[in-house]
Each structure stands twice: as structure tokens, then as C-alpha cells.
Design brief:
The complex is a heterotetramer of chains A (331), B (347), C (339) and D (503). With 331 residues, chain A is mostly helical. Chain A has helices at 2-26, 33-42, 44-58, 66-83, 88-113, 117-136, 146-153, 171-189, 191-201, 203-208, 213-239, 250-260, 272-291, 296-324, and strands at 155-160, 166-170. Chain B is built from 15 helices and 4 strands. The chains are: A mainly alpha (331), B mainly alpha (347), C alpha/beta (339), D alpha/beta (503). The complex binds adenosine-5'-triphosphate (ATP) (2 copies) and magnesium ion (2 copies). One adenosine-5'-triphosphate is lined by residues 16, 19, 21, 39, 41-47, 89, 398-402, 430 of chain D.
Chain lengths: 331, 347, 339, 503
């Protein structure tokens, strides 16, 4: 398995490395620690959410309500903090709980009513978003308590920033790492994680060997909701304000990062490592295009072409190895 | 029989909602004015939904749908405004513009289709890339602005009426019929459904599945370009983000219409009815003065509700032991239902 | 307090729609009684963003003060197609006046023409529509003047009229933002020839998060950057945050259009130098006021004093109204505003 | 209750919407016995097995006794816990997981652990693979293995469980003779350690080789349970089908002029130097062990894959075949070995499947489909090949294996091919249907069609071929005339490394 998945991600990893080289040759600032840290910090929310999306995509599902969930949770937590307390722990607790609740609703609809995930989540996306905007009318929440804002400013061990000074690792990145780690452990070392792959590969057989599709679906979508909760708090800790409209169109970015990272949208395949590459690829492209001074009107063209080339090379590569593979050992 | 019921149930929902809206605001909803304006609004979205549907039937998805429409509209708009200001004959100008629109869209379809079928990249990845690419090209051409300055006569496609029937509606109906015939009455259509279910077996049967797939993307692009002509005419201009909110909406309409998101099943009638439902809801609720957000909530709820009814519907069918031929998942479903029934009986 | 008012308003809306016929005849009676309870639609580019929420307050307030029914509604996304659809539905509904802030002027020309054919008074506000179809055009400000003013303040904040600067905008296809930027650039070309724009305007999707990230990237891509202009309300906040985090308050000047409540924390430490805007509530109020005036068959005159708004300017064409100079929000005065 | 039996089923019925598939079945498997479950296609064997494994729930009134204890309700997991392990007809494996995981995952689930112990998984898997004598790497992804190897994995998985009874639903359908022998050794050793085996197969010789008792089903009804010594070949068949049947060697037809020739066909890593000539009215067989490369040759001949060198000559002219479209145009038809995946669009109707090769015939002025014509063609073939149920609108997935195979054949016959390449035509097909398919092939040949049959089942090869080619490791190693060779001779060529004595 190790070999196989490595192979699957190697192309996209090569593309990422090529892009990094090209950008760095144009502007060496790219690889400067402070830029890397800023880039990762700016993409933690995408990264955390991708981990949630990854697990559903492996089962062949999808959750397009992630943007709506994060937005709604930022509002819930924001209101809570403004009205009650800026306690960070409580914020995380509330966010996770509300995320899990949203996820459970998705999971229940999918498991019990057998409505395809994309339809269910399209529906809940529209409901959650509509209800949340009706409630807030889009008004920003500005008065996030100082204690929470200070939490967002925490940095850990200083590293040189490449310009003679030092820069700390923002606390948000820890959550990204944590999300990746937990997801990796679940996928790799838990029975349910293997069940996620098994369902993606052959749902009928998965039931036959004793997995309960319903239970796994409930778990999965709650997990996505949980990740949305964490992402929401992390986002608020970075932005220090809550904009209920901040996540429109976010679901596509998340899906993009995950599938570019080699997860099979039909289910059965996908890894944390690949998804990380996908997230970094997207992040590096966005960051690098400005660093390379590419005019803004060309940026989308370049991004589009890079995606197309990356995924095509990947497929062609795999096809070629498949064709070369000897099926019969001839004397 | 079961297969038909899904679509007919949608028709029922449509009639119900139509009646409901008529009762709630009889003078306004049933006015010629409102009926006409709904008929003006529906076609551009309906055509995009059909374009999305043909792709979903093959098991794919087209995320570049709206950016294709925008690019095609922008190219057509350039032709219109350039030739118009250069003083060409109006008829010729419009003809050239439409041809340019259609060709641009077909080119986009060709790019999508050939990468998907001949290189074999999964549709969601390809169209994710082309979505960004086409949007980038549009931006590069327009610098974000709107292209306008069309001849008066172009206005007709999106805003004219014939015998009180809006022109776009007539165009829409023509393309509904065309799509219906293409999908359900031609060998190509049969191949589309067959390869949507099992491309390997279809290929083994001597069908050039790649060509079939390519044609699907071209046909989808054709529908997109028609929609884009209507849009540019209705908005009297073209711009990179026109209709961008139609992307997820069209997927919603397609799945609401009963199309299997995994491919292999989907009817024109279902999709069209679904777009009608969405239209009646959105116009009706607007007339009632319901807040926009609540409209979103209701739309989402209706989507889930209808599919839930579908589910329950098929269960009732099972109870009455109608003869039916279920797909694999359905038979599993029935098995699990049997179990629940049994538990219920025991308990 | 204001929030409560909005919900109240919507509640009455709902009860009316679900009410029985008896009630409707009652309203109708009332209408004939007063004979002039106009229905005025005020449509923003989109609902649910702070800026247009503020103008909603003003518009509804005016409705109350003047005894007209104000319907404040718009699409949930800044999409011209959605706006056209809603306008069509509203025309079917039958209203007296439509005042619209077009997402795209050209796109709504056909539907506005349709409205005029039905005898509906057509206004634009916030962003101009096609001049030939509107009866009145309510501008908060003159685009060219506003652009020029922003650039003047940028130079003031930079403390020099030479050096590099960049622009982060809401979206590349937003017509009014583009108009301001174009005017500002043109103004700078003439007045500050040594001011150098390093790259095309960068879009931020109307999101603070994106503006923040783009600003960080710009700072690294152009190390000599002395100023950034942010158009669209979330952009300056995002930029200011980036500047604050990097501790570059003294090196990089940030100006742009932003709401005072959002920008207060950044104005305080100088990461945002000037937020330049007008009071959107006043704009909403003015729009409804002028609509009522026009429906009553009167026309505004130059220098006229509008209650709760102030004196307005009327351009020579007789139908372009300008509310007045923008307000500059600074660390000192930001606390005095509630939007 | 009787402790003799591991499993005792009584009054088991199963109704699917519209059909009663099992009707009052009983089945009693003794401890440590090999019990054969036999019946024609669609008799209900797989369904009965699924009831035993908890996949389906029987209708009310069923009595299930496992290890002397009456069981109220069987679920997949409780069935495993009761010691029943199943090798499903469709394997039920996970193509995206490794061999090791496929084998050991269910073991872990059964043990109720929450986390995975990878070293244990590997250990368990390795042991299981060794037991089936496979040379399969446990780290390979299952999907990249051949069907035969996948089948071995499925068997290995069943062995992992601490099972009291192992159910094998046609485990030998894609195994070669060697592997079958190995499997039988395993079965015997299981038996010695007191484990019962419930065995389903359509290959009667195999059944007689290992089974002690037979339970016969016919059309969902229980016919009886017999000891092996009460039965012989003919009697068993007559119990299964209600009539007598036998593989008779059909004598060759008059063989016509050369129709189709392959010269020096080679593809790196697949096959080498394949040459043969097929005449009109002739049936030739490509036989050999599974994995000898026969399917690869067939796929190259009909445009599914490419080849590196060589010529294909049809009626004296060299032709180029780059796609399946070309093949159909040249009158080459290919009935693939995996009918569920390659042969049929399962969720579509029988009718749609049949007309897929003759789209031109059912269209009017190249544009629209003529529904009536489509229906006529379908009905015609349904009748000709006796496909049941005979409704053209029924989805192909609701047909039993044998009938599905007939639909695939019908599809190809509809296109009126000159050459029919048929890969494992009777794999998983009951003896009655088998003979009918043999007859059909013979009949087609006598009408001038050239037929290339790929088959690992030697009795079948011997029964109908005019000439027999034996392939080994990608090459043709021997050639025989039909009727002049024995199974042993063919086998020795297919397995041995020394050049064969060609007759
Ligand atoms: N889910 C289902 N719904 C309806 N009918 C079914 C279903 N599953 C099986 N059948 C029918 O039940 C009958 C018995 O099928 P089963 O698969 O048990 O046969 P079998 O004896 O295993 O045949 P084979 O030897 O071909 O595998 C067949 O006629 C089949 O069409
Ligand atoms: N992806 C793969 N990786 C490694 N080996 C493979 C792969 N695919 C097939 N093989 C091997 O190639 C050989 C050819 O398999 P195949 O089943 O096509 O042969 P065949 O002669 O047609 O057999 P039959 O028709 O009897 O099934 C087998 O030994 C199989 O294990
Ligand atoms: Mg079976
Ligand atoms: Mg083979």
C-alpha cells in the first residue's frame, strides 16, 4: 500500500516542487520563513477543513455545506463571546458541539433517508446559510473580547525570519497540524478509518464484513462538522472579527484542495499527505503569483493551466505505468 | 413504472406549489405580467440545468458551466459591440455574434471533453481547472468590466415576445425538445445512458465511448451558449460574473429532477420540472415579500423534502408489493427496510 | 434598538402576506383614504453586508417619517442576474417606485425600461445605472471627486508624493469600485507623477481574510511599498490587519473606504490611517426622500436642505443628485458613529 | 436439538418483491463434513448463503439452528461470531485496499478492537496467504491483482476466521487446475480439523471429488439431501434439472476456407508470437492455465488493447483494429470473461443491452431510434436463446448468471459477426445451460461462423473444439486436433516447461 499511495501522490508532489522552484527562482522571498509561516497561517482554515472533507471524499461522499457551517459557527461563537465570555476553551467547546450537531443532521439525513450526500449537503448549506444570514443580516461582530484576541496572537518557539529577526509560529498552525495528525491517526490506525476506505472501495462488502454504513456516515459527517467548528474558532482568532459572509464559495476551494491532492472523488482513495500537498499547492500558487509580479488578470489563467497540467500529467503517468506493467511473464 | 413515478411526483409538487402560490397571492401571482416575467427568467437557468444534466448523466460534473457561459457571452458581446460600432449590417452583426458565442462555448466544451475522455482525467478536476482558466480568460479580455453597446435588435432574443410568449421561453422549449430527442430517441443518447452506467461494458460492445463522451460535453456547451445568448440579450451586456450563482443552483435542479448524481439515470422532464419548481418558489416567495434568506432556507428544505418523499414513496410501493425492478442499492435498501418492518412487527 | 425595528418591520410584512382577505381590504381602504401610500422599492446590490444594512436603516426610517411603504430587498449575492430576476418579480408585484443600486448598470437597463413602461418611477442610488432610463440618480458622492480625495489622503498618510503603492479592491468586476480607482489613478497621474502603482488592482472577493492575505503577499513582493488603498468595506480592514501584524504602521500607509465601527481598532494604532466613507444610512434616507418627492411631482433643487441629511447638490442635468462630501474617519472621530 | 449439525435450517423461505426465490428450504450440515449445495443457475444457492451469513433476512417462520442453538436473527457480524465464514460469489473484497487489509480487517472487527495493529494484520495475512499457497505479496493493492489471485485472497480471508463452517460460493470459477487442487487440499485439512465446508460449484467433477453429502435445490425448492455414494453424475444432473444431460462430443462440421488469421502477434509483457488460422465453421480453443495470457490475446484482437507486432488477416486482407468499433465493423465479436463488469450494463434493461451492438439497425435515417424495431430485435433474441425471464424491459442485474451470459451472447449474435471470440463462456453457469451454450456454439459454427473459445475447463474444450491451442506464459506451446487428445496431455503441456509432443 505504501508504495501504491506514494506513487499516486508523487506526481502532484513533483508539480508542487517544480512550482516552488519556479517561484523561488523569480523571488527568493518565497522560501523565507516568515513568508512560509504567513502562507500556512493564511491557509490553516482551508487546511483544517480539507481534513474533514478528505474523510468524506474517501467514502465517496462529499460535504458542500462546510462553508455554511463554518460561517454559522463563527457567528454562534462570536455572539457567545460578545455576550458571555471570551474564554477560549468554552469557545472551542461550543464550536465543536455546534459543528458536531450540524454534522449529525447531515449524517442522519444521509444515513437514514439515503439521500445522496451532495444533495443533502446542498440542501443543508442553503438552510444553514439562509437561517444564519436571516439572524445576523450580515452584520459583522466586532467586539470580540480581548482575551480571545490575545489567544489568537500567541506564538510559539521563535525561528529566524530570514531577515535577521525572529518570528514565532502562530498558534493557529498548531491546530492545523493537530487536525492533520488526528485525521491521519483515524485513517491509518483506527478500525473505523479502515472502514472509511472499505466503504469507499465496496460498500456492500463493507456491510458484509460487519461495518455499519449508517454508523460510519454519522461519524463521518459529525467529524466534518467538528472540523468546521475548530476551523471556525481558528478563523475568528486570526481575523478578530466575524463576517457572516466570509465563507461564500469556500466549499469549492476545499474540494479542490482535496481532489488535487489525489483523493478520488468516487471514493476509495485519498491520504492526509496528499491532501496536505493539495492545500500547499493551492496556497503556493496564490502566494507565488503575486510574489512573481504576475499581473492579476493572468493569475487565474496560470492557476487554471497549472491545475489542468498537474492532473493530466498525473493521469498520463499512471496510464503509462499501467501499460508498461507486464501481465504475463513470458519466458 | 417506478422510474416514471419520480418525475410525475415532481410534476405533482410543481402543481401543488403553483396552486399554493396562486391562492396566497391570486391577483399578483396569476397575473399575465407575473407569468410572463417567470417565463422570461426561467430559460437561461433552465438551459444551464439541462447542460449540467447531460454531463451528470455520464457520471461527470461540469464546474466550468457558468464560466463557459460567461466567456461565450463575452466573446459574442465583443463581436456585437465591435461590429455594431463599425457600422455593419445589424442582421449580419447578430448572426456573427451568435456564431462567435456558440463557437467559443463549443471550444470550451471541446477542451473539457477531450481532456476528460481522451486523457481520462476525472471531470471534477478538469472542470475545476477550466473553470478557473475560462474565468481568467474572461477577466483578461474584459478587465472585469461589462461589454455593452449592442444593436437594439439583439434585445429581442432575451426580451421579445411572440403572441405574448417570451422569446427566450420559445428558445428554451425548442432546446428541451431537442435535448429530449437527443437523449431519449437517438443511438447517441442510448450510448450516453449506457456509458453512464458502465463505460467499460459499453466500450466492449464496440461503442466509441470517448467520442460519445466528447459529444456530451459539446452538446452541453451548445446548451450553455444558447443560455449565454439569452443572458447577454436580457442583460444587454456581458460580464465575467453574470450567472455565477447558477452553478450550484443548476446542480440542485438536476438532482432535484431525479438525476442520479453517479450517472446513468436522468430525464429531461425531471430536470425541467425541477427548474419550474425552483422558479415558482423563488418568484412566488418574492411576490409574497418573504425575505431573501428565508427563500434560501425554504429552497434547501424543499430539496431535502422532495428527496425524502421519494424515499418514503418507494417504501410504500414496496409494502404494497408492487412488482418493481430495483437497482442494487435499492434492493439493499429494501432489505434494510424489511428488517425494520420486522422489528416493528415484533415490537 | 435598530435591530428590533427591522425584525418588527419584517414581522408586519409577514402577517400581511399571510393575512386573510378582510385585512387586505382594510389596507386597501386605508390606501384610498390617504390616497397616497406609495410603495417604494429600495434595492441594494446585495443584502446582508454591513454597508447595505446601514442604508436599510436609513431607508426604513425615511419610510416611517414620510408615511410611505419601503420594501428594502435585494439578492443575497452581488450577481446581476439575480438582481434582474428580483426586479422582474417586483414589477409584477406592482410598486410605485424602484430605486436600485445596480450590480451592473448595463445588465439592468432592459428591466428598468420594462419598469418605466409599466409607469414605475425609476431611480438609481449608490451606483449609477444607465442615465437614459432613470428619472433620478442619487449619488453619495461624485465618483471622480471621491477617487481623487482618497488618493490625496493616501499621499497625506504616506507623507510624501513619491514611492510605490498598491490597490486591493473588492472584486475586479465591481463597476463603482473600478470607477473610483480609475479616477484615483488618473488623478494621481496628473498631480503625483512620482507615485508608482506597482501592479494591477488585486481582488479580494469582498472578504477581509483574502484582503489580509493579499496584503501580506504584496508587502513581501514589493518591499518598498509605501501605501495601500483598499476599496470595498472589508478590504481596508484586512490590509490594516496585515500591516498591524507585521508592525509596519509607520512604513505603510493604508487608506480606503470602510465603516467606522469595523475600522476603529485599526485606526487606533495607526495601522489604518484614514477610512473614507459617507453615512450609508443617510444615503438610504435621501433615496427614499427623493423618491417620495418625485412621486409627488416635485423635483429637488441645488442646495436644497434635506431633513436628517443636509444640503444636496444637483448637477446641471437636473437629475443627478450628490449627497455631499465624504466623511473621513480617524482615530479621533471613529467612536462617534454607529455604523 | 441435534448436536450433530453445525447448521440446521428448516422452512427457510425468501421473498423478493415480485418473486419467491426460496420456498421452504432445509439444509443440514454436519460437523466436519464437506457439503455440496447444487442447483441450476437461479436455483437460489447464493440467496440461501446470504441468509446464512446475515446479509438477507428470511421470511417469517424460518428455523435457524447454529451449533445446536436456535438463532432468532442473524446479522452479518453475529453470523461471523457464530463461526460462519463466507467466500462470496462476487468475492466481496475491497479493490482499493491491500491484500493484507482485505484478509485481516474483518478479523479485527470481529475481535471488536477499536484500533489497528498493523503488525498483527500483516502476520495474520501472511499466514493466510501461505495457507492457500499463494505467491501474492500482501502489500499489493487488491485491485491490481488478476481475478484468480483475488479469488485466492477471498479464500484466504475466510480461513482467517476461527470458523466452524466455511461457505464457498463457486470458489473455483476462476481458478486454474493447480489452484483448485490446492484448494481441495485445504478443504481436506479443514475437514480433518473438524470444520465444515459448504461448497457451491457448477463443476460436477469437483463436487464429487470432495463432497460427502449433496443438497439439491431446483427453482427455489428443496429437492433432497443425498450421500455421495447414493449419487452418480447422471442422477445428480437429473435431480438438478429434472432431466438427463451430458457433455457429448459434438462432431466437427465441414470446415470451410480460411476466415481469419493471426501472424506473429506480440505484445511486450503480455504474449509473444501468436499465430493461428481460423476457418469458416470452425471452433478453436485457446486453453491453458489462468494467467497464460489468453484474455490478453483476445483483447488485442478486438481492439480493447493494442499490440506491438504482428498482423491480423481477415478473409485474405490485412486489417487494422485500433478500437472495439473497428472490431465490430470487421465482424469480430468478443464475449468477455467478466460479464458483470465487461459484458453487461447491469442496471439497464435486457433490451438496451442487446441492441447496443446494432444501433445502426434500429435507427431510422441514421438519426432516431425506432422503438418497435428495437423491441423486435430484443424479443427475437430472447426467444432464440431462451432467456428467462423473457421480458425485454427487465434490468439485466435481476437475471441469474446463466441468463446474463445469454444476454451477452445475444448482444453479439445480433451484430451477426463473422468471428466470435468467447472468453470462459460457461464460467459460473449450470450444467444445463452449459450444454445449451455448447450446442449454440456448434450451431453457429455450422452456419459458417468462426469461433475462438477461451476456456480453462478441459471437458468443455474437448467436447466442442475442432482444434485446441494450449497457451503457457504468453506463448502457444502446443496444438491438437479435437477428439485426438486427452485432458492429461493438455494439462501436461499447460503446466510443464518442456516442449510438448504435438500430434
Ligand atoms: N435482490 C433480488 N431481487 C429480486 N430477485 C432476486 C434478487 N436476488 C436474486 N434474485 C433472484 O433469485 C433467484 C436466485 O438467485 P441466486 O443468485 O440465489 O441463484 P444461484 O443459485 O446462486 O444461481 P447462480 O448459479 O447463477 O449463481 C434468481 O432468479 C434471481 O434472479
Ligand atoms: N495489474 C496487474 N499486476 C500484476 N499482474 C497482473 C495484473 N493484471 C493481471 N496480472 C496477471 O497477468 C496474468 C494474466 O491474467 P489473465 O486473467 O488476463 O490471463 P488469461 O490467460 O486470460 O486467463 P483466463 O482467461 O483464464 O482468466 C495473470 O497471471 C494475472 O495475475
Ligand atoms: Mg450464485
Ligand atoms: Mg482471462
Amino acid at each position: 500500500m505504501k508504495q501504491f499511495f506514494k506513487k499516486k501522490e508523487s506526481t502532484i508532489l513533483c508539480v508542487l516542487i517544480c512550482i516552488i522552484i519556479i517561484i523561488t527562482l523569480n523571488n527568493s522571498t518565497f522560501l523565507r520563513p516568515d513568508n512560509i509561516i504567513d502562507m500556512i497561517k493564511g491557509n490553516t482554515v482551508l487546511g483544517i477543513m480539507s481534513m474533514g472533507m478528505l474523510v468524506v471524499i474517501i467514502t465517496g461522499g462529499i460535504d458542500v455545506s462546510v462553508g455554511a457551517m463554518i460561517a454559522a459557527i463563527t457567528v454562534i461563537v462570536g455572539k457567545f463571546m460578545v455576550n458571555f465570555t471570551g474564554n477560549v476553551l468554552l469557545a472551542f467547546l461550543l464550536a465543536s458541539l455546534s459543528g458536531i450537531l450540524f454534522g449529525l443532521i447531515n449524517g442522519l439525513l444521509i444515513a437514514k433517508l439515503k439521500i445522496p450526500p451532495i444533495v443533502t449537503t446542498l440542501g443543508t448549506m442553503s438552510i444553514i446559510n439562509g437561517a444564519m444570514l436571516y439572524y445576523t443580516n450580515g452584520t459583522w461582530i466586532n467586539d470580540i473580547p480581548e482575551s480571545f484576541i490575545n489567544f489568537g496572537k500567541i506564538t510559539l518557539f521563535k525561528v529566524p525570519d530570514g531577515q535577521g529577526g525572529t518570528i514565532g509560529i502562530p498558534i493557529q498552525i498548531l491546530f492545523f497540524i493537530g487536525a492533520a495528525l488526528i485525521t491521519w491517526i483515524i485513517l491509518k490506525y483506527s478500525i473505523i478509518g479502515r472502514g472509511i476506505y472499505a466503504i469507499g472501495g465496496n460498500p456492500v462488502s463493507a456491510e458484509r464484513i460487519g461495518y455499519s454504513l449508517d454508523k460510519i456516515n454519522l461519524f463521518l459527517y459529525s467529524y466534518v462538522g467538528f472540523m468546521a467548528g475548530i476551523a471556525a474558532v481558528v478563523h475568528t482568532s486570526i481575523m478578530r472579527q466575524v463576517d457572516p459572509n466570509a465563507f461564500t464559495g469556500f466549499e469549492l476551494q476545499v474540494v479542490a484542495a482535496v481532489v488535487v491532492g489525489g483523493a478520488n472523488i468516487l471514493g476509495g482513495a485519498g491520504t492526509v499527505f496528499g491532501t496536505l500537498i493539495g492545500v500547499f499547492l493551492m496556497a503556493a500558487m496564490n502566494n507565488g503569483l503575486i510574489l512573481m509580479h504576475i499581473p492579476v488578470f493572468w493569475q487565474k489563467i496560470v492557476l487554471g493551466i497549472v491545475i489542468l497540467v498537474a492532473v493530466s500529467i498525473d493521469v498520463l503517468q499512471r496510464k503509462r505505468t499501467l501499460r508498461k506493467l507486464a501481465k504475463v511473464d513470458i519466458d | 413504472m417506478r422510474r416514471f413515478s419520480k418525475e410525475w411526483m415532481l410534476v405533482g409538487v410543481f402543481i401543488f406549489l403553483f396552486a399554493l402560490m396562486s391562492i396566497l397571492s391570486p391577483d399578483k401571482f396569476l397575473s399575465l405580467n407575473n407569468l410572463q416575467s417567470m417565463a422570461f427568467q426561467l430559460p437561461e437557468f433552465g438551459l444551464l440545468s439541462l447542460a449540467m444534466m447531460v454531463v451528470i448523466v455520464t457520471g461527470g460534473i461540469n464546474l466550468s458551466l457558468t464560466s463557459t457561459a460567461a466567456l461565450s457571452g463575452i466573446m459574442g458581446a465583443f463581436a456585437l459591440s465591435i461590429m455594431n460600432s463599425a457600422g455593419f449590417d445589424v442582421g449580419l452583426t447578430i448572426a456573427v455574434a451568435i456564431v462567435v458565442s456558440v463557437l467559443t462555448s463549443l471550444l470550451c466544451g471541446l477542451i473539457n471533453g477531450s481532456i476528460i475522455s481522451y486523457i481520462g482525467v476525472s471531470p471534477i478536476l478538469v472542470t475545476l481547472g477550466t473553470m478557473t482558466l475560462f474565468e481568467g480568460i474572461s477577466l483578461n479580455f474584459t478587465k472585469g468590466g461589462a461589454i455593452s453597446g449592442f444593436p437594439e435588435q439583439y434585445y429581442w432574443f432575451g426580451n421579445g415576445t411572440i403572441l405574448q410568449i417570451p422569446v427566450p421561453m420559445i428558445i428554451f422549449i425548442v432546446f428541451i425538445v431537442l435535448t429530449y430527442i437527443m437523449l431519449e430517441h437517438t443511438p447517441w443518447g442510448l450510448c450516453v445512458y449506457m456509458s453512464g452506467c458502465n463505460p467499460l461494458a459499453t466500450m466492449y460492445s464496440g461503442i466509441n465511448v470517448k467520442k460519445v463522451l466528447l459529444k456530451v460535453y459539446l452538446f452541453s456547451a451548445l446548451l450553455t451558449s444558447v443560455s449565454s445568448v439569452i443572458m447577454t440579450s436580457r442583460y444587454n451586456s456581458a460580464k465575467v460574473d453574470y450567472g455565477s450563482s447558477y452553478l450550484l443552483q443548476s446542480i440542485t435542479a438536476v438532482v432535484l429532477g431525479g438525476t442520479n448524481i453517479a450517472g446513468g439515470y436522468g430525464k429531461v422532464m425531471g430536470t425541467v420540472t425541477a427548474t419550474l419548481i425552483l422558479q415558482v418558489l423563488s418568484s412566488g416567495l418574492n411576490l409574497l415579500g418573504v425575505k431573501r434568506y428565508i427563500v434560501d432556507v425554504i429552497m434547501g428544505a424543499i430539496l431535502i423534502l422532495i428527496l425524502a418523499i421519494n424515499f418514503i414513496n418507494s417504501n410504500i410501493k414496496f409494502k404494497t408489493k408492487n412488482k418493481s425492478h430495483n437497482s442494487d442499492s435499492n434492493s439493499n435498501l429494501i432489505v434494510s427496510l424489511l428488517e425494520t418492518l420486522k422489528i416493528a412487527k415484533k415490537g | 434598538g435598530n435591530n428590533a425595528k427591522t425584525t418588527e418591520g419584517s414581522k408586519t410584512d409577514e402577517t400581511k402576506t399571510s393575512d386573510t382577505k378582510a385585512d387586505e381590504t382594510k389596507t386597501e381602504d386605508k390606501k384610498t383614504e390617504e390616497n397616497k401610500k406609495y410603495t417604494i422599492v429600495v434595492m441594494p446590490k446585495l443584502v446582508g453586508i454591513p454597508y447595505f444594512n446601514a442604508s436599510e436603516k436609513g431607508a426604513l426610517q425615511a419610510g416611517e417619517d414620510l408615511g410611505v411603504e419601503v420594501i428594502y430587498t435585494g439578492p443575497t449575492k452581488a450577481d446581476a442576474a439575480e438582481q434582474v430576476k428580483m426586479l422582474e418579480d417586483l414589477i409584477s408585484k406592482g410598486v410605485d417606485c424602484i430605486a436600485v443600486a445596480p450590480n451592473d448598470p448595463a445588465a439592468i437597463t432592459p428591466v428598468l425600461k420594462k419598469a418605466k413602461e409599466k409607469g414605475i418611477l425609476v431611480l438609481d442610488w449608490d451606483t449609477p445605472a444607465d442615465a437614459s432610463v432613470v428619472d433620478l440618480s442619487v449619488h453619495q458622492i461624485d465618483d471622480a471627486e471621491y477617487g481623487a480625495y482618497q488618493w490625496d489622503l493616501l499621499v497625506e498618510a504616506m507623507g510624501t508624493d513619491e514611492g510605490e503603492y498598491a490597490i486591493i479592491t473588492g472584486g475586479l468586476s465591481a463597476a463603482n469600485l473600478n470607477a473610483w480607482i480609475d479616477a484615483g489613478i488618473a488623478h494621481a497621474k496628473e498631480k503625483y507623477p512620482n507615485l508608482k502603482l506597482v501592479t494591477e488592482r488585486i481582488p479580494s472577493d469582498e472578504k477581509q481574510q483574502v484582503a489580509y492575505q493579499k496584503a501580506l503577499e504584496l508587502i513581501k513582493a514589493y518591499p518598498n511599498l509605501k501605501g495601500i488603498v483598499g476599496e470595498s468595506t472589508p478590504a481596508p480592514i484586512g490590509i490594516a490587519q496585515a500591516v498591524q501584524e507585521k508592525g509596519l504602521q509607520d512604513k505603510i500607509a493604508v487608506v480606503g473606504c470602510a465603516l467606522p465601527t469595523d475600522s476603529k481598532p485599526y485606526l487606533e494604532d495607526g495601522s489604518l490611517d484614514y477610512a473614507i466613507l459617507w453615512d450609508p444610512a443617510k444615503l438610504g434616507y435621501l433615496t427614499v426622500y427623493l423618491a417620495k418627492m418625485k412621486l409627488d411631482g416635485k423635483s429637488p433643487v441645488d442646495g436644497e436642505e434635506i431633513p436628517n441629511v443636509g444640503s444636496i447638490r444637483v448637477k446641471p442635468d437636473g437629475k443627478t443628485i450628490i449627497m455631499g462630501p465624504p466623511v473621513v474617519f480617524t482615530k479621533e472621530n471613529a467612536g462617534n458613529f454607529d455604523f | 436439538m441435534d448436536d450433530k449439525f453445525v447448521v440446521s435450517l428448516k422452512n427457510v423461505s425468501k421473498t423478493f418483491p415480485g418473486a419467491k426465490v426460496l420456498d421452504n428450504i432445509q439444509l443440514q450440515v454436519k460437523k466436519g463434513e464437506v457439503h455440496a449445495l447444487v442447483g441450476e443457475n437461479g436455483a437460489g444457492k447464493s440467496t440461501l448463503i446470504k441468509i446464512l451469513s446475515g446479509v438477507y433476512q428470511p421470511d417469517d417462520g424460518a428455523e435457524i439452528i447454529i451449533n445446536g442453538q436456535r438463532v432468532r436473527e442473524l446479522t452479518t457480524i453475529s453470523s461471523v461470531r457464530q463461526g460462519i465464514a463466507v467466500i462470496y460469489q462476487d468475492f466481496s473484497l475491497f479493490p482499493n485496499l491491500t491484500v493484507a487489509e482485505n484478509i485481516a480487517i474483518s478479523h479485527e472487527i470481529e475481535e471488536g478492537s477499536k484500533f489497528i495493529n498493523w503488525s498483527k494484520i500483516e502476520e495474520v495475512a501472511k499466514k493466510a496467504i501461505e495457507r492457500v499457497g499463494g505467491t501474492i505479496s500482501i502489500y499489493d493493492q487488491l485491485g491490481s491483482l488478476s481475478i484468480a489471485k483475488q479469488q485466492l485472497v477471498a479464500i484466504a480471508r475466510a480461513l482467517v476466521h476461527d470458523a466452524k463452517m466455511i461457505i464457498m460460493d463457486e470458489p473455483t470459477s476462476s481458478l486454474s487446475a493447480n489452484e483448485v487442487k490446492l484448494l481441495f487440499d485445504i478443504i481436506r485439512s479443514l475437514k480433518e480439523s473438524g470444520i465444515s465446508v459448504l461448497f457451491v460449484s457448477h463443476k460436477l467433477e469437483e463436487l464429487f471429488e470432495v463432497s460427502e453429502r449433496f443438497t439439491v435445490l431446483r427453482d427455489g425448492k428443496y429437492i433432497g439431501t443425498y450421500n455421495a455414494d447414493e449419487l452418480d453424475y447422471d442422477k445428480l444432473i437429473s435431480l438438478m434439472v429434472g432431466r438427463k444431460l451430458q457433455f457429448e462430443r459434438c462432431t466437427g462440421n465441414k470446415i470451410g476456407e480460411p476466415l481469419f488469421a493471426v501472424k506473429g502477434l506480440s505484445k511486450k509483457g503480455n504474449f509473444k508470437d501468436i499465430s493461428f488460422t481460423l476457418h469458416k465453421g470452425e471452433i478453436i480453443s485457446l486453453t491453458g492455465l489462468v494467467g497464460a495470457g489468453r484474455t490478453e490475446v483476445a483483447q488485442a484482437l478486438c481492439g480493447i488493447t493494442s499490440f506491438d507486432e504482428g498482423k491480423i488477416i481477415l478473409e485474405g486482407k490485412e486489417i487494422k483494429i485500433n478500437s472495439t468499433e473497428d472490431a465490430v465493423e470487421n465482424g469480430i465479436a468478443y464475449v468477455p470473461e467478466n460479464r458483470q463488469v465487461e459484458g453487461l450494463v447491469l442496471s439497464r434493461s435486457v433490451e438496451d443491452n442487446i441492441v447496443l451492438t446494432v444501433l445502426k439497425q434500429i435507427t431510422e435515417s441514421k438519426l432516431l431510434i425506432k422503438r418497435q424495431r428495437k423491441r423486435e430485435i430484443a424479443l427475437n433474441w430472447i426467444k432464440k436463446l431462451n432467456i428467462k425471464p423473457s421480458s425485454p424491459a427487465i434490468a439485466a442485474q435481476n437475471l441469474s448468471g446463466g441468463n446474463q451470459q445469454r444476454v451477452v451472447i445475444a448482444k453479439w449474435l445480433a451484430s451477426n459477426p463473422k468471428i466470435l471470440i468467447i472468453d470462459e463462456p460457461t464460467n459460473g453457469i449450470d450444467i444445463g445451460a452449459k450444454t445449451e451454450i455448447h450446442k449454440l456454439l456448434r450451431e453457429l459454427a455450422s452456419n459458417g461462423m468462426g469461433i475462438i473459445m477461451i476456456s480453462s475447463e478441459l471437458p468443455e474444450v474437448l467436447a466442442i473444439s475442432d482444434r485446441i491451442f494450449v497457451m503457457r506464459k504468453g506463448k502457444i506451446v502446443a496444438q491438437f486436433k479435437g477428439g485426438e487428445v486427452t485432458q492429461e496431455e493438455i494439462m501436461s503441456n499447460a503446466i510443464l516447461n518442456q516442449p510438448a509432443l504435438a500430434k
